[in-house]
């Protein structure tokens, strides 16, 4: 059982219904295309296929069946949330998750201080502490 079934690309995304992100910062990038399913949108975002930026989220317009790939998410500065009944927002969990999995080498979240308030050290740095 379960053999031959492919894992859905949508599992890598956190869905928020009836929400769209509006970029206030004009340097943030968006690309749109007509696609029939959210699964197709998710695959392209995960692979960054045909995109000139790293896709962090996408919004799917259920009415026009248009996918909007975003170089930002709801935690990005220069972005505001907008209630919109036509859209569902899908954000890559890696970028909105505030937990570290394993050793944390692939962490892309927003936490940059320790529990006690000390600034985090870059993974590739030996300063101020050795690994």
From TrEMBL:
GO terms for cellular component: extracellular space. GO terms for molecular function: endopeptidase activity; signaling receptor binding. Keywords: Disulfide bond, Kringle. Residues 8-94 form the Apple domain. PROSITE patterns: KRINGLE_2, PAN. InterPro entries: Kringle (IPR000001), Kringle-like (IPR013806), Kringle_sf (IPR038178), Pan_app (IPR003609), Serine_protease_kringle (IPR050759). Residues 98-131 form the Kringle domain. Pfam families: Kringle, PAN_1. This is HGF factor. It comes from Grallaria varia (variegated antpitta). The lineage of its organism: Eukaryota, Metazoa, Chordata, Craniata, Vertebrata.
